[in-house]
């Protein structure tokens, strides 16, 4: 096999990997938003994707978040989705973060809206559904 053939295979594999990571990331974010228990919408709105480093998120507002706070969080989350869509292997790791301090309690089952481990289930569903979709497309 020539060096140019090897380079072509490597570029194809890198492209496939980048598309898979992006697709999984988008699916996981969508699952997390859907599954996160909702009272004010703050925790749900703060799932933020980023490339190369963990997203810092927005500061927790005093008291209940206002609709403007939630809108700002949704805007940051939309920027995170753009980062996921444009992911390249050279960007480093892809992160999906939520810096709302009570998210670990929610994931431990403190809300009747979502059972314990909703984060892990959202990730697993995202990975499985993306691989299924990708395998259907490759047939």
- What is the SS-derived class? mainly alpha
Total number of beta strands: 2
Biggest sheet, strands in spatial order?
Answer: 1-2
The CA-CA distance between the termini, in Å, is: 26 Å
Helix content: 55-70%
* Uncertain segments: none
Biggest β-sheet, characterized?
Answer: 2 strands, antiparallel
Report mean pLDDT, rounded to a whole number: 90
Name the overall outline: elongated
Percent strand equals 5-15%
Query: Roughly how many Å is the radius of gyration?
Result: 18 Å
Q: What letter string, H or E per element, gives the SSE order? A: HHEHEHH
Count of discrete alpha- or pi-helical segments spanning 4 or more residues = 5
Task: Give the topology, please.
Blueprint: H1 3-35, H2 42-45, E1 48-51, H3 67-85, E2 94-97, H4 103-107, H5 118-137
Antiparallel strand pairs: 1-2
Helix pairs in contact: 1-5
């Amino acid at each position: 096999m020539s060096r140019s053939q090897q380079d072509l295979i490597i570029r194809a594999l890198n492209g496939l990997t980048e598309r898979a990571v992006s697709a999984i990331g988008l699916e996981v974010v969508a699952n997390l938003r859907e599954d996160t228990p909702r009272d004010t919408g703050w925790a749900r709105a703060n799932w933020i994707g980023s490339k190369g480093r963990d997203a810092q998120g927005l500061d927790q507002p005093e008291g209940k978040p206002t609709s403007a706070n939630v809108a700002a969080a949704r805007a940051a989350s939309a920027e995170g989705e753009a980062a996921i869509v444009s992911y390249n292997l050279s960007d480093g790791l892809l992160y999906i973060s939520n810096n709302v301090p009570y998210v670990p309690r929610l994931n431990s089952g403190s809300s009747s809206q979502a059972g314990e481990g909703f984060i892990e289930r959202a990730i697993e569903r995202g990975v499985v559904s993306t691989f299924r979709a990708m395998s259907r497309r490759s047939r």
